[in-house]
Amino acid sequence: MKKTLLLCLAAILILTVFVGCAPKSPSAAEANTSQETMVTDTSNKEVKILAEVNGKYFTESTRHGVVFKDGSNGEKSVLRGLTDEKEFHDALLAIGAEPGNNVTLDCMTKGVKVEGTKLDVFVTWEGLGKEIPFNDIITSSEPRPMDIRFGGNLERAKEKNTGCILCLDSCAVGITSNSSYETGASKEIKFFGNKEVLPADGTTVTVIFRIAQ
């Protein structure tokens, strides 16, 4: 009887050790971490990404609206994106946007305007209770109505790895950029984050890209 009991206890101990050593399956939160920073809604033809306010650009100028945090320009934008720009490019394709791919690196000093599907871009954050146009969170030394286009530029995005998601003037690398300002415009025109509209530095916001009607 004692021998049987000892064998049972030994078996239980062995099973406990093996269960404890077995690799853990990622939790739902861990598995969805990358997905939670971007939501692709094909029905409403929109892509939502998370970003953080970079208060540095309330007082310093930049031509970068949203840049993925892990890109080489990740700390050079009004909003620090939490989504990889290459994945964002593919999400725009998924909602039916068509890339312009008309701006090359040679065009960057030639006054070319980016083409591609027109996108309405909005920003919101917890407690705001509404969406506000991206144009409202930017100030400029020469204000113009914002005209965001799906520039494309996937291959250059892969090559340069800048992380650029939304540039404030036409760009050969950014996935989207502002056609209201031709390439090279930022040499003369200064852009800033609007501290009168945006929440405090480090606040998480949602940026919404929606195919214009």
UniProtKB/TrEMBL annotation:
InterPro entries: YdjY-like. Residues 1-28 form the signal peptide. Keywords: Signal. It comes from the Bacteria. This is 4Fe-4S ferredoxin-type domain-containing protein.
